[in-house]
Amino acid sequence: MGYDYVIVGGGSGGATLAARLSEDPSVNVCLLEAGGKGDHMLIRTPAAVVAMLPGIGKISNWAYETVPQKGLNGRKGYQPRGKALGGSSAINAMLYVRGQREDYDGWAAAGCDGWDWDSVLPYFQRSQNHEDGGSDLHGGTGPLQVSHQKSPRPITRAFIEAAGRLQHREVADFNTGDNEGVGLYQVTQFHDEARNGERCSAAAAYLHPVMERPNLTVITGAHATRLSLEGKRATGVHYREGKQDKHVAATREVILCGGAFNSPQLLQLSGIGRAEDITPHGIDMVHELAGVGQNLQDHLDFTLGYKSKDTDNFGIGAKGTVNLIKHALEWRKTGKGMLATPFAEGCAFLKTDPNIERPDIQIHFVISVVDDHARKLHAGYGYSCHVCVLRPASTGSVTLASADPMAAPAIDPNYLAEDSDLETLIKGAKMSREIMKTPPLAEYEHKELFGVRDGMSDADWEEIIRNRADTIYHPVGTCKMGVDAMAVVDPELRVHGMEGLRVVDASVMPTVTSGNTNAPTIMIAERAADLIKASAAQTLAAE
Q1: C-beta atoms surrounding 112 within 10 Å
Q2: Nearest 5°: CA angle at 161, between 156 and 166?
Q3: What is the set of domains in the chain, with CATH numbers?
Q4: What is the pLDDT of residue 57?
Q5: Which residues, including other chains, have CB under 8 Å from residue 58's CB and lie 6 or more apart?
């Protein structure tokens, strides 16, 4: 059976796009997702992310690793990615952050017409069902429920007050296009009565409510293996379901929504990309496209950790177990309590130099000790402060590790290849620690962790950063949008030199946004839906 549109990947981009395209009852849409339905209790419970993020058992998580990173003293980095309908929005911290106005204006200035801040803002609004209702900046009727945090802990308030004592302004909304300051993150969390306090993944927002549409077919457990091509036209997708190899045809378009790692991998498996990345694996070249898998950008994160005697946060201990039961009952009854937490409750966007135009670091204040993505646990209680470089100069790549479509790709973020990234991260770590050491937050500290101490030189900071830093989960850019020689898709997200093939996910970002990437990915899919519908209308009019 053939469909008008075949979408590969049911993450933030794919779930949004499938729902929007299938609004038209005259078209048939098929969505292929390698993972499950994305509706189990671990996904629905915000705090249960701690069970999925570490990748133990790979619960709804691809749990990828990078190749050894020279800039991280040869360590392999960890790259958790959501494997379920909803994608990484099913296992993330639910943080709703759009980035800065200049991010999008920069895309437009580089040739991506229609992607400036003023043009994309309506798509952010269209996606939103904000707890405060509609406004000049927010939407009140969209599928994606965006809320204020249900029960931020007192220690998070202490973080905000400590930053205020250092003259950092408090901000109520980090989604105005100017996000400088400190405050609480907004979150993709249900605020309606029926599901109050549950995670609102892209699938829960867009896809699950429309799964019964007769013109929408969603196939889970379907791992795409390669595209079917007729010359330079995409005509369908080969996929593996269980032990069976299957095929689905697309009469209009194939749309890749696999994310920054899987979309370029599928292109390369299909013979689209750089010859040096494809032919050594015995795959025939179909279309030379220099940018496929290149331009990988990610936010490298360094974490400060502290033990505390305060037990009103997440920890491992007898009192914590009792508290957890109490909070579980509260969450099921009211949607509030500690199980509603995004963990990363406190936010700051700061400048490491007062002379620069906009913030260049982001801070996530977390109400637990986080060590190696929660893969190393610490008894007792504590808190963490994460700092990342918002606009890294270092770029990496995603290539094939083998011709086996079931194998993970070779992921090389090339962290700290540029000295400027290290310099900014050192400055950011110092600024973060200054906040940690300022009352009232300083009063929570019992012991500083991970070898950080007073009197550290820049060489000391460099050593500890290279030994401990890793991703904060924002890979983008490997199928970049643009008009230059390294662009993979044009400003309408069509793959250059191909027909019937688009990419709609974070891989199309020319540069990483200055913040978390889930909200921008959903925005991209909202705009893509309009572009695809307009293209179909033009084709019909010409026939």
Answers
A1: 25
A2: 130
A3: 1-145+199-297+398-408+475-543 (3.50.50.60), 150-184+300-389+417-468 (3.30.410.40)
A4: 92
A5: 83
CB atoms < 10 A from the CB of 188, how many? 28
CA dihedral 462, 465, 466, 470 (to 10 degrees): -150
CB 489 within 8 A of CB 481: yes
Instruction: Please identify which residue in the block is written with the tokens 């970049």.
Output: 480
Closest CA to 8 of 290, 226, 291: 226
- Residue range 64-109, pLDDT digits in tens: 999 999 999 999 999 999 999 999 999 999 999 999 999 999 999 9
Q: Which residue has the tokens 């991209």?
A: 524
Characterise 515 by phi-psi region: left (phi > 0), alpha (psi -120 to 50), beta (else).
left
Q: Classify 99 in phi/psi space as left (phi over 0), alpha (psi -120 to 50) or beta.
A: left
List the 64-69 sheet strands across, edge first.
Answer: 75-79, 64-69, 410-412, 397-399
Which are the contacts of 511, defined by CB distance < 8 A and separation ≥ 6?
103, 106, 107, 297, 391, 476, 477
Half-sphere exposure of 114 (CA within 13 A, CB side): 13
Q: What is the pLDDT of residues 111-121, one digit of tens each?
A: 999 999 999 99
Calculate mean pLDDT across residues 503-508.
98
**Pairing assessment for the beta strands 470-471 and 300-308 based on DSSP bridges:** antiparallel
Say if residue 1's pLDDT is above 80: no
Q: Which residues share a beta bridge with 387?
A: 302, 363
Using alpha carbons, select from 6, 14, 11 the residue that is nearest to residue 526: 14
- Tell me which residue of 93, 104, 101, 8 sits closest to 347, measured CA to CA: 93
- Nearest residue to 499 (alpha-carbon basis) of 287, 276, 295: 287
d(CA 412, CA 260): 12
Question: Cis ω on the peptide bond leading into residue 440 (within 30° of 0)?
Answer: yes
Asked if residues 405 and 226 have their Cβ atoms less than 8 Å apart, the reply is yes
| 287 a catalytic residue | no
Comparing 314 with 205, which gets the higher pLDDT? Answer: 205
- Asked whether the beta carbons of 88 and 35 are under 8 A apart, the reply is no
Under a CB-based contact definition with an 8 Å cutoff, are residues 312 and 327 in contact? no
Query: What number of other Cβ atoms are within 10 A of residue 209's Cβ?
Result: 12
CB 259 within 8 A of CB 15: no
In terms of phi and psi (left: phi > 0; alpha: psi -120 to 50; beta: otherwise), the region of 477 is left
SS3 470: strand
**Selected catalytic residue, list 191, 287, 327, 474:** 474
